[in-house]
Write a structure and sequence with these properties.
Blueprint: E1 17-18, E2 26-27, E3 31-35, H1 67-73, E4 77-82, H2 89-98, H3 102-105, H4 127-133, E5 137-143, E6 182-186, E7 197-198, E8 204-205, H5 211-226, E9 236-241, H6 257-260, H7 268-271, H8 287-310, E10 317-322, H9 343-346, E11 350-353, E12 361-367, H10 372-379, E13 405-412, E14 424-432, E15 436-442, E16 448-455, H11 473-488, H12 492-496
Parallel strand pairs: 3-9, 3-10, 4-12, 5-6, 5-9
Antiparallel strand pairs: 1-2, 4-11, 7-8, 10-11, 13-14, 14-15, 15-16
Helix pairs in contact: 5-8
C-alpha cells in the first residue's frame, strides 16, 4: 500500500502498493509523464472529427492528423473544458507549478529581463518539489520560461545567455530547479530547427535538428535509464515541454518537411475551416506549417509512449498531454495568437490517462491552470506539507467541481528608476461558463472600455458580440460568478473593487 508518512518523503520511494491486476500484483508507485507542447489549441486534435467526440467541441475541428493522440484519447479522460486562465506561456507555467493564479504564483507576465515582477519564487513549494519530496526522480526537458533572466551564462559569467534586450532566454541554475534531478532545458528560444539546451552541469548543447524530435530522443533516453535494473524501483516524473507548434511557423526552418507534406497541397480554405477564420490575412499562409508542427508533435509523443511500453511501464504511468495556451490562427481576424478569451486561445487540450486505464471517457468539468497540481498530486496520493495551500482544486473530486473558469489578462505596469517593470496592470478579467463567455477590459483609470460577451451554445465560433446589459438576468449571474472567483483568489480587481458599480463583490461568498 501507499506510504502513509509522507514527511519521510524520499525514504518512501520503495514502498509498494497493491492493485487488482494479477499479472503484476505488486508494483512501485505510478510514474508521471507530462507532455505539454506550447501554443497547441484544443481544436487541433484529430479525435474531434470522430462522431463520438464531435459533439463535445465548440465549433469546427481542425483538419489535422494526430493518430497517436487519438489512440491515447481512447484510453484516457478527455477534458472538454480545460483552459489556460491567463493564456500566455509564463503565467500558465507559474500556475502549473504552484497551483496558484498569477496574482499569487509570482508569474503574472511572460518572463524577460526587464520584468522584475515576474519570476517563479525560489521559496515556492512547486509541483516538482512535491514529487521530489515523495521520492520521485524528476526530469525536465525543453522550455522552462519561468525565470527572470540574469547575467548568469555558465560559459560566459556576467553575461546573459540571450543577447537581445530585453533578454528572454535564460539559464536556470540548480538552486532554481525546484527538486528537478535531471535537467535538459532552456528559458525560451523560438528557433525550432536550431534549438539549444543546458544540462545538469550548465553545459550547452546545440543538436541542429527539429527541437521536438530531439526532446523525444532525450525523453526516451531518460525512460530507458530510469527503467534500468539499478533504477527500476524508483518512480519517475518526466516533464517534456516542446516548443512547437509555438510561433514561428512560416517555413521549413520551423518544421519537418515530412510533416509539412501532409498539408502543403491543401488550400487555405481547406485548412482554416472554422467559421471565424479570416482566410485573407497574411498569416493564413502559415496554416500548413502550424498543422505540420501539430502532426510532428503527435509523432514524437507516440515515440515516447512506445518507450514506456517497451520498458513495461505504460500501465504504471500517469500520462498527461496538454498545452500552455491555444492559438487563434486567423480566427476573429486578430494577429495575436493568444492572450484573449476567444476559445481558440483560451481552451487547451487536456488528455489524462490514469495507470491501468484502458477505456476512454469525456470530462466536461472546467479544469483551470491551478487545478492541475492538486489533481495530479491527489491521483498519485501525494499530500502537501501542512503549511502549503493551493488555490487550485482537484477536479476529479466530486465535491470540488466548478461551473466556470476565470479569464485573466495582465499587461506591464509601473516602471522603476532603472527602466525595469516592477508591477503589472490587470487590464482584463472575465468568466467562462458552458453557456457564456464574458470579458471586461479597463483603462488605467479603472474605467470600462471594452466588453466581449458570447453565447457559447448558440454561437460556438463566437461571432456575435452581445450587448452588455447589466440588468439582464444572465449577465447578472455571470457578474456574480466573476465576483466570487475574484474574491476567492484575492485578485487585484477585488482588492481595488474595480467596476464595483456592477460586479457584486459585497455579495460574493
Amino acid at each position: 500500500m501507499f506510504c502513509e508518512d509522507r514527511q519521510k518523503s524520499k525514504q518512501c520511494f520503495n514502498i509498494l502498493y497493491s492493485h487488482p491486476f494479477p499479472s503484476r500484483l505488486f508494483m512501485k508507485r505510478p510514474n508521471l509523464l507530462y507532455v505539454f507542447p506550447d501554443q497547441y489549441r484544443l481544436m487541433s486534435l484529430g479525435v474531434w472529427q470522430r462522431p463520438e467526440y464531435r459533439p463535445h467541441l465548440s465549433g469546427t475541428p481542425d483538419p489535422v492528423l494526430t493518430p497517436c493522440l487519438d489512440e491515447l484519447a481512447d484510453s484516457s479522460s478527455v477534458f472538454t473544458n480545460a483552459v489556460s486562465n491567463c493564456p500566455v506561456c509564463s503565467p500558465h507555467r507559474g500556475s502549473l507549478m504552484t497551483g496558484m493564479y498569477p496574482n499569487k504564483s509570482g508569474v503574472p507576465l511572460n518572463c524577460h529581463s526587464l520584468r522584475v515582477c515576474s519570476d517563479l519564487p525560489q521559496e515556492s513549494f512547486c509541483l516538482t518539489d512535491a514529487l521530489s519530496v515523495a521520492g520521485y526522480h524528476v526530469g525536465y526537458i525543453g522550455k522552462w520560461h519561468l525565470d527572470f533572466p540574469t547575467p548568469n551564462d555558465p560559459q560566459n559569467p556576467g553575461s546573459y545567455v540571450d543577447c537581445k534586450t530585453p533578454a528572454w532566454d535564460s539559464y536556470t541554475e540548480p538552486c532554481r530547479r525546484h527538486g528537478i534531478d535531471y535537467w535538459y532545458g532552456y528559458g525560451t528560444f523560438d528557433q525550432h530547427t536550431n534549438p539549444h539546451y543546458y544540462d545538469n552541469d550548465g553545459e550547452r548543447h546545440e543538436p541542429k535538428m527539429w527541437s521536438a524530435e530531439h526532446e523525444a530522443d532525450k525523453a526516451i533516453e531518460f525512460i530507458h535509464s530510469r527503467c534500468s535494473k539499478e533504477n527500476i524501483d524508483t518512480p519517475f516524473a518526466l516533464f517534456v515541454s516542446m516548443n512547437p507548434p509555438h510561433s514561428p511557423y512560416n517555413s521549413l526552418d520551423d518544421c519537418r518537411e515530412s510533416d509539412l507534406d501532409i498539408y502543403s497541397q491543401q488550400t487555405t480554405e481547406a485548412l482554416l475551416v472554422r467559421d471565424n477564420a479570416d482566410v485573407h490575412m497574411a498569416k493564413a499562409a502559415s496554416a500548413p506549417y502550424y498543422f505540420a508542427n501539430v502532426s510532428g508533435v503527435d509523432k514524437e509523443l507516440g515515440r515516447i509512449i512506445d518507450a514506456l511500453k517497451e520498458n513495461g511501464e505504460w500501465d504504471n504511468t500517469l500520462v498527461v498531454f496538454t498545452s500552455d495556451h491555444g492559438e487563434t490562427l486567423c480566427s476573429h481576424g486578430i494577429e495575436d495568437a493568444k492572450n484573449c478569451i476567444y476559445n481558440e486561445s483560451f481552451q487547451v487540450p487536456f488528455i489524462l490517462k490514469q495507470p491501468f486505464q484502458t477505456r476512454g471517457n469525456v470530462h466536461t468539468e472546467f479544469l483551470n491552470s491551478p487545478d492541475i497540481m492538486p489533481t495530479l498530486l491527489n491521483l498519485l496520493d501525494i499530500p502537501l506539507p501542512p503549511d502549503v495551500s493551493l488555490q487550485g482544486k482537484d477536479v476529479l473530486n466530486q465535491d470540488q467541481h466548478t461551473s466556470c473558469a476565470l479569464y485573466i489578462r495582465n499587461i506591464d505596469g509601473e516602471v522603476d528608476e532603472n527602466g525595469d517593470i516592477k508591477s503589472y496592470f490587470p487590464v482584463s478579467r472575465g468568466i467562462k461558463t458552458r453557456d457564456y463567455s464574458l470579458a471586461l477590459t479597463i483603462n488605467k483609470e479603472n474605467q470600462l472600455v471594452d466588453t466581449l460577451l458570447f453565447n457559447n451554445q448558440e454561437d460556438p465560433h463566437q461571432l456575435n458580440n452581445l450587448e452588455f446589459d447589466v440588468n439582464q438576468p444572465e449577465i447578472k449571474a455571470l457578474l456574480s460568478l466573476l465576483a466570487n472567483e475574484l474574491t476567492r483568489i484575492e485578485d487585484p480587481w477585488h482588492e481595488s473593487k474595480v467596476l464595483a458599480e456592477f460586479i457584486p463583490y459585497q455579495e460574493s461568498k
